[in-house]
Each structure stands twice: as structure tokens, then as C-alpha cells.
Amino acid sequence: MQSVKIGILGLGTVGSGTVSVLKRNSKEISRRAGRGIEILRAADKNLDSPKTCDLNAIDLTDDAFSVVNDPEIQIIVELIGGTGIARDLVMQAIENGKHVVTANKALIAMHGNELFAKAQEKGVTIAFEAAVAGGIPIIKAIREGLAANRIEWLAGIINGTGNFILTEMRDKGRNFADVLAEAQALGYAEADPTFDVEGIDAAHKLTIMASIAFGIPLQFYKAYTEGISKISQEDVQYAEELGYHIKHLGIAKKTSQGVELRVHPTLIPKRRLIANVNGVMNAVVVKGDAVGPTLYYGAGAGAEPTASAVVADIVDIVRALTTDPENRVPHLAFQPDSLKDTPILSMSEVVTSYYLRINTEDKPGVLADITRIFSEQDINIEAILQKQPEEEEGTVPIIMLTQPVVEKNMDEAIAQIEALDTVKHAIMRIRMESLG
Amino acid sequence: MQSVKIGILGLGTVGSGTVSVLKRNSKEISRRAGRGIEILRAADKNLDSPKTCDLNAIDLTDDAFSVVNDPEIQIIVELIGGTGIARDLVMQAIENGKHVVTANKALIAMHGNELFAKAQEKGVTIAFEAAVAGGIPIIKAIREGLAANRIEWLAGIINGTGNFILTEMRDKGRNFADVLAEAQALGYAEADPTFDVEGIDAAHKLTIMASIAFGIPLQFYKAYTEGISKISQEDVQYAEELGYHIKHLGIAKKTSQGVELRVHPTLIPKRRLIANVNGVMNAVVVKGDAVGPTLYYGAGAGAEPTASAVVADIVDIVRALTTDPENRVPHLAFQPDSLKDTPILSMSEVVTSYYLRINTEDKPGVLADITRIFSEQDINIEAILQKQPEEEEGTVPIIMLTQPVVEKNMDEAIAQIEALDTVKHAIMRIRMESLG
């Protein structure tokens, strides 16, 4: 059978990794796919800069549109990233009736709805396994492997930089800023770390997983994001003492009111497997009503792990090339006409447990004030840890774990406690999940 | 579009779970599959015994062949188990041009080669996700999700009963026989626990995973199996002290000499995620050359977790009903004409590290004898733990961890050490894997 001809857009880290994997494992891959996969052309805007892969026998250009418009090419592999030129190229490829494989989470999370609609119209597939959690086949697991289930929730460590920072803070007692600087030096974190540490990157990935889990349109702009930059060494240690690790989680949960879509630091019981996912590794827990909790773990970034997902998508498309488009796996797991517009809940409506650190003056009556306010807001306390006064400040940290409460009540309680004369600092709050 | 009509053979635990999941989640499932899935008929040899699922609107019979021969039925779901009648029914279903979904690991591991050849000839699919690790979509992950990779090795906790026993032994200091009796009372273990604790069940599953990972025919009869019944409480504790957990692993590894296929108790460093998979849960680590190590975790047995995998297979087949058979995912991941007859290595050729417990008399010169024998067999010692003499016996347990060595050398060394006058007991040996 004739080889399938592909064109690669972007020869950066992932693009070079994809070329390397396709060349090195070409026999293994075609033994699986049933036919060869040939990289006919590749485009990169900086052809003069050195590349880390063997580009022999590949027709190179700096004009990506010429690849997209090449009638010989059947599959376009978009590895440029971002939502500018990448979007135009993908749209043009679809218009030209080509299948698309992409690792671009921002593009899918922000423009997936229109891209999928166009792809549907043209009878082509957009595959995006590499957009979420790198080499972990999590899209396939949720979309196909768990197709029997009503997915109840999913929760993931889906940003390696953030997990590296939190792991170092816990294992070595270091501070956020210090570890971030190292991560930047090591190349884990970008010069502008906002996307990683403030949860935007994780929210892109979470948005995509939530859509395929619950059968809802992509709604990135409704995701709640809270970063890890405010997590202090003392919070890490108090959490530890209480039996928890702090992880930066993306959480999507279906409730009777709607869908929760939120990225924030989270206390997780240490005994959970996901609490022990360390360093730059990623993991996602998916809870289905039939299967119960399942977990998927692996490298969430890097040249070859991401290339692994890109190439798996290429093989899937090759296998389905002759399939009637109606019978292919739908982009968002559910048939396009049966996506539901379930509302995304605002954070004030979300119910979670909390870790609170309240620094108060060491005076009688403080705890009575706090517990009275909690009681008025229907907040039940699960555990209290009161520490010795800190010498220099004369304040006492009170650590509290609460039972689940709706966030608006917690907001109100915190506002009232912060208004007390005896409370001089802003209260630190971190949400908790049992993930059981 | 018309519903797809299926027939279920066997209404035991998994059969009833499958009916329940298909009925409860029918809307969710058809939103994904694009069409309804209708259980037209079901067969069970004990129709009079009470069933745990709603059988309303299903045509029941005690003649399974009448279901297999029903021209209206497109997919046969075999949930009887074993290699007797189940094999005849599956063969007949294929002959009749029907697709088959099965949870039957023994059937696939022992007769898969002939069944797949017949299915290939008839242009139908045999799907068997539920045969390995229950609800974890591990077949899909290896076969499709990691299609870009040369798989280097995989290692799994793939028998829940065995893992429950080892977890209880470690956490509660209990003995093997004691926990086994409880597992039988709880219904985790069969009255005849041989299949579970001696590694036969795990070897069935390992055989299947190895074939799809390496592209080799199914060769169950060449798998090495060693059970956990000889593991003592003191071994569990010494392992703990040295930083390891003991797990019953199925391991498949590709080396330059051939393929290793082995089930045995294994020491794993505690820091590995899989070392922390406890109770009846299953997990599989798969190492690909591009993606690195990935891990898949979930319930490995039980009515609804297994049904989750059965139904996912049904949805896959429904989606591919109109596909040209040539373009479907091959049964063993690789195209049938490109399976390779890579030899399965005998255990004497396998290279691993070892944990050894040698009970010797407390006399001078013993350690010198042992280390001389090791040296002659090219065995390097990584760590030694020498304990106080045990009062009643006057013997000293010496615990040793070795560096990797070929098993035949270790066999020879153990034979020589056991022949020493000062060594009164058989040496306990447990293989070690770093799984890094």
C-alpha cells in the first residue's frame, strides 16, 4: 500500500522530536499502521537555525502555507503553537480537505469549537492527543477507553513546571521564587512563567478534558484559574503535618447544578497515588460511574514524549483514512449534535473543603470570634492546629481544615474574620479534595 | 440510525454488570457511539438463579448457540469464561461473521492466535480490553496510544487478589495463609486460589500485553510463573527496611536476545508509583522509547469496572462497523503479516538483581564462603544486612541485595551455598526490578 504523506509545520522541540521518532521507529510504526508514513515536507520560519533532528529527504520551506496547500499531503502536523498563524494554517488545511494533528492546547481550548465544526463540514479529523499531558494517552482513554461511563469528575497534575516547583518546595524546604528561578535556568519554565505558574496552561488542558468527559462545548474563558505563587513554605509544612500534599490541580466535576472547571492549589491526602506524582511528571485521575477511579501517569512535556502522542494521532488517522467520517470517533467524544450546554458554575457556587491559615494576635476570645463566624456561615471545622506564637510578630498561626462548604459562604466568613481587630494578615486559604 | 443488536453470553458477575451499565448509561453511550446499542438476547445456563441486573425486554435463553446463530445479532459478548464452551461459541460466532467482545483472558492467551486468524479471514473483530486489568483501558493504551514507540518493557500488578494479600501482609504484619483465608471469605479469592496466587491468571494477562507490545504471537505456555505463597512476613519486613515493597508483578521485557515473559514476586523501590498501588487495585507501567515510563491504574476486577471495558469495546466495534477490515486496529496491534517470532527467553537466561535471605549458623568463615562463591559466579553484592542470631535456632539471617546477574549463575551460586555445612535452610530469593 502507498505511504501516507504528511507535512510538518514547525521544527522546534516537538517538531524535531516528531521527525526523530517517525524516522527512528518507522518500521515499528508501519508494522502497526499497515502502511508507511512519509514526511514529504516540513516548514520552519528559521530554517537557518540548527535543528536537532535528521532532515534528510524532507523538502524544507519557510512558507508553511505552501505545505498546507500542497495537494500531495494528506495530513498536516501543526507544531507551531499559539493562536495566530497556527490557527490560520489549521483552518486552511481543513479547507483543503486535509486531516490535522496538533499539540496546540491554546488553539484547541480557545478555537476548538469553530475548528471542529469546520472539520466536520469537510469530513476531516483534527487530532489533539499531544495537547493534553504530553505523552500520556489521556484523550484516548477518556474518549474511547471510558466510553461506557458517566464521568463524574477528573483531576490532573497537568503542568510539569508547577509540579516541579511544588515538589522541590516540599522535599527540600525551598521557597517558591527560588525554585522558579532554578526551573527557568533548567529550561522547564519560560522566561515569562505566568502561563505555567498561574494555571493558564493547565486551564487550556482542563478545558479540553472537561469537554470530552462531559460532552460540552469548549469554554476556556469560563475556567477559574489560581496560581501557586502564593503558596508558602509554612503552608507546605502544615499540610504535611496534617497528612496532605499540596498539588496544583486542574479539576472538572459534574454536579446536579452544572460543571465545575477550576485550576488551583489543592491539598490531597498523601495516601492517594496522585499525591505522590513528583517532579515534572503529569497524572490525571478520571472517575467514571462504572469503572471507579482510574489514573494515567507519564511525561507531560518534552520533545519525544509529546512526539509519541503526535505520532499516535497520525497512526489513528492513517487507520481511519478510508472510514466514513460519520463513523470516526467524534472530536469531543460525543456526536456533535448531542453536545449539551451544561452551565459552567462560578466559583462562588463550588462546594469544597478548605485549609485555612489565620494569623491572629495571641489574645483570649479570638478563637471564639472565628468559630462564631464559621457557625453563622454553616461551616463545620474538621481539624484545628494551633501553633506557638511566632516570636517576632507576636501572632499565632491557627490552621483549620473545614468540611465541605459552598464557596460564597467561605468568602463571607473570611471577609468577616479579616475584619476582626485581632486578625492582622490576609487569611491563606487552599481548597482540599479527597479524590476518593 | 438503527440500533446495533448484541447478544450476551453469560449473566454472571460481569454479564450482569454489562447489562446494568448498558441500560443505566444508554443515553450517554449512544451520544458517544452515534447510535443505540440494544441487548436483543442473552444466554445463561442457570436462568432460574437470581440475577443482579434488570433483564426486562431482553429475550433470554439457556441455549447460547441459538444466540450465536441468530442472524439479527451483530456483536456477540462472551462472558462465560474458560476455554471449553466459550471457545466453541466464539469460533461459531466468528464463522457466522459476527464481531466478538470477550473478557476471557484464558481464551485469548491460550487460543488467541487461531481465533484472530479466523476473525481475520472472516473480516470481523475480536475485542478483549476486559481480559486484562479490568476497567483500565490498557490494551487501547499500548495498542493505539503508544503506537509511536518501541516498547522496551512493561510491568504490572495484574492480579487484585495477590496484591490484596501482599498489601495486608505489609500494612498489618499478617501472614500469607491468614490473609488468603480472609480474601476467600471476602470473595476476592476463589475456593481454589491457585490461578490467583500462583501467577497463572497474571500470566494470561501478561501474555496478551506482551504480544501487543512487541508484535509477537501469543505464547502463554512459555511464560514463567512463580507465586507469592512462599513470601514470609520477615521478607516483607527486610524489604521494607531496605527501601522496597514486594509486589507480584507480570514483567515482559525485550532484550537483544529475545523476550522475557515472567510472573514472580518482585522487590520494587518504594518511591516508584507502582510500589504504592495497594489492595485489590491494578496498575501497569509501560516503558516506550519515545514516551518514557507511563502508568495506568484502576480496578482490575469487579462487575462494573470489567463491564466498563466490555462496553468500551462494543462502542469501538459499533464505530468501526462500516470500516474496511483492512483498516481496523489489528488484534495484536501489529498487522498479522508483520508479527515476528522473537524467541521467549528461558528464565536461566534472564538478568535481574536479587534479594537473598540466607539463614546460616553463627560461625566465623560463613560470610567468606558465601562471598567466594558469589565471586566465582560473577555476582556483585549491592548491600548486606546481617541480623542478630535468632535465639531458638542459633542461626543468623543474612540479607543480601545483588547487582544484576544472569539467572543461571545465581542458580549455581545458590546450589553451592545451600551445600555448605553451615547453611541449614533453603535460601529465599526474590528478584528485584528498579522499573526506572
From TrEMBL, chains A, B:
Which residues bind L-homoserine per the record? E190
GO BP annotation list = methionine biosynthetic process; threonine biosynthetic process
Its Gene Ontology molecular function terms? homoserine dehydrogenase activity; metal ion binding; NADP binding
Return the Pfam families for the record.
ACT, Homoserine_dh, NAD_binding_3
Binding residues annotated for NADPH, in chain numbering: K105
Q: Which UniProt keywords apply?
A: Amino-acid biosynthesis, Metal-binding, Methionine biosynthesis, NAD, NADP, Oxidoreductase, Threonine biosynthesis
InterPro entries in UniProt: ACT-like_dom_sf, ACT_dom, Asp/hSer_DH_NAD-bd, HDH, HDH_cat, HDH_CS, NAD(P)-bd_dom_sf
Q: Where does NADP(+) bind?
A: L9, G10, L11, G12, T13, V14, G15, S16
What domain of life does the UniProt record list for this protein's source? Bacteria
The EC number(s) attached to this protein equal 1.1.1.3
Active site location: K205
Cofactor(s) listed in the protein's UniProt record: a metal cation
| Known catalytic reactions | L-homoserine + NAD(+) = L-aspartate 4-semialdehyde + NADH + H(+)
Q: In which pathway does it act?
A: Amino-acid biosynthesis; L-threonine biosynthesis; L-threonine from L-aspartate: step 3/5; Amino-acid biosynthesis; L-methionine biosynthesis via de novo pathway; L-homoserine from L-aspartate: step 3/3
What is stated as this protein's family in its record? Belongs to the homoserine dehydrogenase family.
Q: Which PANTHER family match?
A: HOMOSERINE DEHYDROGENASE (PTHR43331:SF1)
This protein is called Homoserine dehydrogenase
Q: Which organism is it from?
A: Methylophaga nitratireducenticrescens
